[in-house]
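In response to reviewer comment 3 from the previous cycle, which asked for concrete evidence that the modeling workflow produces usable outputs, we include below a single protein chain processed end to end. The sequence was submitted unchanged, and the resulting structure tokens are shown without manual editing.
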Amino acid sequence: MEENMIEILKSILYGIVEGITEWLPVSSTGHMILLEEIMPMNVSSSFWSMFLVVIQLGAILAVVLLYCNKIFPFRKNNKGKYVPVKSIWILWSKILVATIPAAVIGLLLDDWIDAHLYNGFVVAIMLILVGVAFIYVENRNKNMRPSVDTLAALSYKDALIIGLFQVVAAVLPGTSRSGSTIIGGLMIGVSRAVAAEFTFFLAIPVMFGASLLKLVKFGFSFSLLEFFILAFGMIVAFVVSIFVIRFLMSYIKKHDFKVFGWYRIALGIIVLVFFMVRAIF
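The workflow returned the following structure tokens.
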């Protein structure tokens, strides 16, 4: 009983880390892998592989709650009937376009990526490289005025380019899905706020699809302990995400993303040193 409670407490900690890092461009999967290196959960490898992805669904539901008015494609009219909202349907069509590249790669390479790239070394390298990219792009854009400052102004071409940047995160853990898509947006002239919001919305179909894929592979056959581990992790990630999303959208009104770039570089160096020392001793 005590051992089971320890595993549930671990899942709560994982939920906190997921809720914070899913939306800040610092790589949620990277942090989860690193946390697992320090404090592994006493679960099967198949459950861990599924948990690592499905816990993100809790964080995604926070977006659905906070942005319901911007993403729900129906409105109630004066007669009390729900009617479609054209602008939101157009937004969802752009989200679909941006989703296609990562969806294709995920379906084709999911097992190979798990087997070969989900490790601390890849995470550390990508933490550093994307951190450098953030600093470079923000310095380059310092005196530039964004050409896209509303979601409606985002073109299908812009959406596809952002979706292609998401492929990097789908393949290389430590890249950060939000980080790579935000960088993609900034590079083509999208404002920070629009890049962040589009990244939030893009996560909805991507993570629902990825979670369903992992659940199907796992088989939906949970023990009671596994069910509680997953449930607590998702609920905590959901609650923490609500506060973090609000913080991030407030923060970027007055600040750029360079602080996250420096954080990623520092963390990546620490991780590299950690694994080199462990390999020696």
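The first helix runs from residue 2 to 21. We consider this sufficient to address the reviewer's concern, and the full set will be provided in the supplementary archive.
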